[in-house]
Amino acid sequence: MTNKLKIVILIYARLSSRRLPNKVLKKINSKTLISLVIDRIKRISTYKIPIILVSSKDRTDDRLINYCKNKKIKFFRGDLKNVFQRTLECSKFYKFNSFVRVCADRPFFDVKLMDRMIKKFREKKYDLVTNQFPRTYPKGLACEVANIDIFKNLDEKKITRSDKEHIFNFFYRNNVKYNIFNFILPDFKKFRNKDYSLNNKEDLSKVRKIYNEFNSFKYIDILKIIKKNEFIKHT
């Protein structure tokens, strides 16, 4: 399938996590977490879209960049704290028109949900397709598909320090100016306050256990698997 809209998948990653440093390079079975996420996207996704790892210029991420070079993973380095600016600079370097945002530390990221979001984005000229406005999907299953023009046309002086890290918050606050489509999770009240992300050593041990048994995840499978392994954390 051709990349009609010059869309790319941006996987955001850094190694300076306080609770679990270097977590995206931790091994889950025989693969690092970052390789596992990339491989699942390549294997499961209908859309053959270029994948770019977006990290920082900080020396703490040198090891991650060396890993990308060895594995022939495309990458971009920008400001450690200003993710908004990092995204803009990445778009100028790779010249894409739209992008999918994926966090590298989400072992249960639903690739099929990502495909549905890309399809919806391509059906109509949306500025942003998300499952976070309002958020009904649990933490760890977030995904957005966005037109890069909404970033280019925004005066960075208008955004807050928090917006520079959480790059879609400005658009959610000013939603009347943007064409946004939101995916809603059925029975979301049961799951809205759950957290499926990988944050610490305990989470890592449980993720390794789960991946010993399963290797394909849709959100409904995730709910069953995590319940079985008592992985759910309340936010």
Question: How would you describe this structure to a colleague?
Answer:
35% of the residues are buried. By secondary structure, the protein is α/β, with parallel strands linked by helices. Strand 4 (51-56), helix 2 and strand 5 (74-78) form a beta-alpha-beta unit. The protein is built from 9 helices and 11 strands. The protein has a single domain (7-234), classed as Spore Coat Polysaccharide Biosynthesis Protein SpsA, Chain A (Alpha-Beta Complex). The model has no long low-confidence stretch (mean pLDDT 89). A 7-stranded mixed sheet has the order 5-4-1-6-8-7-9, sandwiched between helices. Strands 2-3 form a two-stranded antiparallel ribbon. The longest helix has 13 residues, at 111-123.
Alpha-beta content class: alpha/beta
Number of strands: 11
What is the string of SSEs from the N terminus onward? EEEHEHEHEHEEHHHEEHHE
Which CATH architecture is right? Alpha-Beta Complex
| Structural domain count | 1
CATH class categorisation = Alpha Beta
Q: Rg, please? A: 17 Å
Keywords:
17% strand; seven-stranded mixed beta sheet; two-stranded antiparallel sheet; Spore Coat Polysaccharide Biosynthesis Protein SpsA, Chain A; alpha/beta; 235 residues
Question: Gist?
Answer:
The protein is built from nine helices and eleven strands. It has helices spanning 33-44, 62-71, 83-94, 111-123, 149-152, 161-165, 169-173, 201-211, 219-228; strands at residues 7-12, 27-28, 31-32, 51-56, 74-78, 98-103, 128-130, 144-147, 180-182, 194-195, 233-234. The longest helix has 13 residues, at 111-123.
